[in-house]
Amino acid sequence: MSEATISFADHDQIRTLFGARDRYLRQVRDQVGIDVVLRGDEVRLQGDEAGVQRGLEVFAELRAIIEKKGQLEESEVRRVLGINGQSQQSEAGFKPVPIDLFEKARKVTPRTAGQANYVQSIEQNELVFCTGPAGCGKTYLAVAMAINAIRREQVSKIVLVRPAVEAGEKLGFLPGDLLAKVNPYLRPLLDALNDILDFEAVKRYLENDVIEIVPLAFMRGRTLNQTFIILDEGQNTTVTQMKMFLTRMGVESRIVVTGDTTQIDLPEHTRSGLVDAMKRLGRVDGVGSVELTGHDIVRHRLVRDIVRAYDDEATGRGRHRKASSDRV
């Protein structure tokens, strides 16, 4: 185990270097394969000798960009890390390829290079984690890829899963049977299905149990073979729940986990299962990790500006709260 320390006189420089919600830091840590510890105005790198040396080079280059420009862009971090290679499509050379749903007049097409990379990762890996802000197509594209897989007979079933966590609100008593009670939590998945397929196709798949929409708690004890499983809102799972979910994976199955790590609704001091799993499994063969950004937002034109405004505020105050944290 090797260790190195980088000192900063200006704490604002650390905030810029780490990015909103430590976004850039996570990319450096995962790509280089090192641990990063913040203590006061010092950043400590821990890992094997080669990894620590590479980390020093990366941080030095990013720091030089900040000192020259006063800011740091996502594209610059990716360039320094060397992850804009052949497996990563650049915006300039991006050519959209539709996801084949085998239906006339039905096309779902990635609209950004980031989305295209996400689709490519799903094609190439059996387990994919995708994080990103609201409106960047995390769930929508995963559902489209699941439908593609079932119509190509790569899988025989689709299971759409969501944790039943209230987003900072108390919904109180919900009337009706079990399906009616969990419907508010699962509705976004059903909306994606209805947008991609016609009503009759969705109805037929649900009635024949080809598509199943279930709360996360109902996954315990199951083994799913030849199944395309999507876990939406994965940031709202605990570490224990995420372990339970991932171990449901059976023969010839694949899993996509989506989430927005800036909108965690778990109780305070509860670690997100998505954040934990991405750190644990980031270097496992067959596991893909994709981080979409504000550039990939394809919802209403104002959504990108809204997300940026909240990220800017979080960057300003979040680093002050974390200045004395042990490990990031």
**CATH class division of the largest domain:** Alpha Beta
Q: What is the average per-residue confidence, as pLDDT, rounded to a whole number? A: 81
Task: State the low-pLDDT regions, or none.
Answer: 84-88, 166-174, 319-328
Topology as H/E string?
EHHEEHHEEHEHEHHEEHEHEH
- CATH third-level topology of the largest domain: Rossmann fold
In the CATH hierarchy, what is the architecture of the largest domain at level 2? Answer: 3-Layer(aba) Sandwich
Helicity, as a percent range: 40-55%
β-strand percent reads 15-25%
Shape: globular
The count of domains is 2
Q: CA-to-CA gap between the ends?
A: 18 Å
Number of strands: 11
| Structural class based on helices, strands and sheet pairing | alpha/beta
The CATH superfamily of the largest domain is identified as P-loop containing nucleotide triphosphate hydrolases
Strand adjacency order, main sheet: 8-7-9-10-6-11
Description:
The protein has 328 residues and is an alpha/beta fold. It has two domains: 81 residues, K Homology domain, type 1 (Ribosomal Protein S8, Chain: A, domain 1); 199 residues, P-loop containing nucleotide triphosphate hydrolases (Rossmann fold, 3-Layer(aba) Sandwich), CATH 3.40.50.300. 43% of the residues lie in helices and 16% in strands. The protein is built from eleven helices and eleven strands. A six-stranded parallel β-sheet has the order 8-7-9-10-6-11, sandwiched between helices. Strands 1-3-2 form a three-stranded antiparallel β-sheet, covered by helices on one side. Strand 2 and strand 3 form a beta hairpin. Helix 2 runs parallel beside helix 4, helix 3 packs antiparallel against helix 4 and helix 5 crosses helix 6. It starts with a strand and ends in a 6-residue tail after the last helix. The C terminus is likely disordered.
